[in-house]
Amino acid sequence: MQQAAVEADDKAPALPEADDLTSRLRRAGDLLRSHEPGLADRYDWLEAMINHVPDYIYAKDLDGRFLFANAAVVSNNGLDSVQELIGLTDFDLHPSKAAEEIAAIERRVMDSGEPDLGVEELSLKGNRWLMMSRVPLKDKTGKVMGVVGASRDISARKRAELLMKAQARLLQTLARGANLSPFLKEVADLLEEVIQGAAAAILLHRRGGEALHLAAASPTTRAASVLPSDIVGIPALWRCFAIPSGEGEQHGLLAIHGSLGQDASLSEFLVGVAQTIGIAIDRHHDAERIAFLAEHDALTGLPNRTLLDRKLAGILELAIESASEVAVVFLDLDNFKLVNDSLGHAVGDTLLQVVANRISEAVGQGGLVSRVGGDEFIIALQQTDEDFLPRLTRIRNAIGQPLTLAGMAMQLTCSMGMARFLAHGKTAAELFVNADMAMYCVKESGRNGIRTFEPAMAENARLKLGRTEELRRAVELDEFVLHFQPQKDMQTGEVIGLEALVRWNHPTDGLLFPADFIPLAEESGLIVPIGDAVLRKACQQAEEWQAMGLPAVTIGVNMSARQFQESGMTRQVAAALAESGLEPRWLEIEVTESLLMRDVHGAVAKMNELNDLGVSLAIDDFGTGYSNLSTLKSFPLSRLKIDRSFITDIPGDADDMAITSAIISLARTLELDVIAEGVETEEQAHFLSVAGCFAVQGYLFSRPVPAGQIPLLMQGRATKVD
Ligand code: C2E
Ligand code: CA
Ligand code: CA
Fold first, then answer.
1. CA 56, 59, 63: angle at the middle one, nearest 5?
2. Which residue's alpha carbon is at the smallest distance from atom 43 of ligand 1?
3. What is the 501 CA–ligand 1 centroid distance (Å)?
4. Fewer CB in a 10 Å sphere around the end CB: N or C, the chain?
């Protein structure tokens, strides 16, 4: 364009000699105006136009002396008229390195005769960015006589670019997931860097509060310490930009001190920066939340296993350094499953929250509580002035405080096992295993207690593992036999039933009783195949006796919870009956009260299935559970078996007698048969018959005996077998 304006028009008058271009121009103009008014106007118009444009336009001769310059150049050099400029060089105006560089470029343009277009450079004074174009100034013959320069101030564009770059840099840092406080510092520093003479500060609200605090400050702000660390309201003399949060609220303010002028792009930039800060803070909060969730239990807010593992490692290291003790404690609520099953999971969850709070409050200093699953907690105790056991007792007492949930008053107990570092384990893993084992021992010995690990526990656990293997083999080899205990009607003296009781014919230990292996069988799930074998043997045996011509009597078979809840249970019973050919009415399944109450709906369905088969149902150990009478009424039962514990202390214990009488009349009311177990003395038998219970089972009449002895017993040839 510059080229076009200067050279391209062939009809333009010949350009004058370089030394006094402007005056000649003027003179030529005057001359022309007098002869050719139109042409003179054109020069005036051109001059006026050139003076009007904000761009810098000038011409220099071969020696770099100004021949001409427009008003923009004149005023930029602090001069009043172009006359003052003509004849001067850049060196006269601003002797500098930049002046040398410009002279070199202009020299090149003049020497080569080639234009140099669109080059960005800093102004001579160094305060602006210019887009320069230089073209050789030629006479009509094409001889170079100087240089014409035109430049445009691109400072604003350059600044916009700088701001964009700055913004991009922040976004990159943000995308890299930088930590919040270095990020905020970077923002503040950057702002001071890109906005001349400004100081920056980032003020954030404390979580959930109105007050602002200084989160980051640029160097000037820091040096001047112009801001207190806690600030209420917007500081005076600062321009503030709200830092928005993703939830439409405000994290705080981006404050800039210094003149921002009327530069709209700068304000826009700052609004953008404030938004970027907002995103960074949102992300930081999200990351904090995610980090929290990764290491905490969502239900109780307690540390989870991951955090426990991490923290315990540190605690153990510290303990080694300070030669102090640490205890790792496994805590498990007793009968939590019962609460969960009977009152529902929502109540169970609330209960766990209550317990978590109680443990946290009671654990005190130097204690770390974590929930590791269901109703299991692990507590790490660091050494304090107080011993470990009293601290654990405090936790246990806290858990044991009465509470009411879903309208039910209850009192919880728990089982705790403790392992000490280093006595019971050199690593966290060893401590976990041993504390767990100690806790398990508490469970096994009736729950509700605290025990410290002992090496014998590990030995027992090993033995148990071996026993479980033996039991598995016993199932395969069918090492189980049944003994039968007669049930008598005291009025007629006749045997009215036989309870099948399992024994394990152990290859080396001899005949083992249920107490020695049923708990293990239940725990390992082996009770299911064992129970199935018992069922088949019992039916087989009963059918054999009937075939022998013995009077037909009921065969009682015990069924454990695990087996009763098996989905194929009814099918197994039906199969045992079918295989043996025993009529269903001679089979009586004995289940415990607590089993039925655990899941009433499921139990009723199962009982109905058995009832449909024609099999009878008895409640075993009646009186020890917590039967709800109305529920009991809805069960398809045939008999209640009064638990042995109520009979044992008769006639000494008045309470037991009262309970026994009550159970007998309850059975009458519900139109159920009733039988008393564990009858050992004449007094007990007498009391029962007076109370109206004539069916009895116990050592008084017979112990459980091998099948071979039953025919004798039934034929009345022997009335008592010890
Ligand atoms: P239970 O069902 O209450 O069986 C009665 C238990 O009381 C038997 O013990 C029996 O020997 C004992 N007993 C009977 N009369 C008297 C008495 O006058 N005095 C005393 N002190 N005890 C008496 P056993 O055979 O050791 O069985 C113990 C428990 O093992 C049974 O209690 C039952 O719960 C369970 N059990 C036995 N056989 C099986 C089975 O095949 N399957 C399942 N799931 N459990 C079984
Ligand atoms: Ca029984
Ligand atoms: Ca019983």
1. 130
2. 558
3. 6
4. C
Does the pLDDT at position 525 exceed 80? yes
Tell me the CA distances in angstroms from 102 to 70, 99, 106, 523, 585, one per residue in order: 18, 5, 6, 94, 118
> pLDDT digits over 7-50, tens only?
334 444 444 444 445 555 555 456 545 655 565 566 677 777 78
Does residue 146 line the site of ligand 1, with CB under 6 A? Answer: no
Tell me, what's the pLDDT at 722? Answer: 46
Proximal ligand: closest to the CA of 560: 1
In this prediction, residues 542-571 reach a mean pLDDT of 94
Q: Which of 372, 364, 381, 385 lies closest to 316, judged by CA? A: 381
Q: Whole-angstrom Cα distance, residue 705 to residue 722?
A: 9
Residue 34 C-beta-side C-alpha neighbours within 13 Å: 5
The answer to whether the CB of 704 is under 6 A from ligand 1 is: yes
Distance CA(581)–CA(560), nearest Å, equals: 24
Ligand nearest to the CA of 705: 1
Q: Give the model's confidence band at 235: pLDDT under 50 very low, under 70 low, under 90 confident, else very high.
A: low
- Give the position, in ligand 1's atom list, of the atom nearest the Cα of 700: 18
Q: Tell me if residue 587 falls in helix, strand or coil.
A: strand
**Ligand nearest to C-alpha 589:** 2
pLDDT of 122 strictly over 90: no
* Each residue's pLDDT tens digit, 600-652: 888 999 999 999 999 999 999 998 876 777 788 889 999 999 999 999 999 99
Ligand 3 centroid, distance to 506 Cα (angstroms): 24
Q: Is 531 in the pocket of ligand 1 (CB under 6 A)?
A: yes
Q: Give residue 700's region: left, alpha or beta (phi > 0; psi -120 to 50).
A: alpha
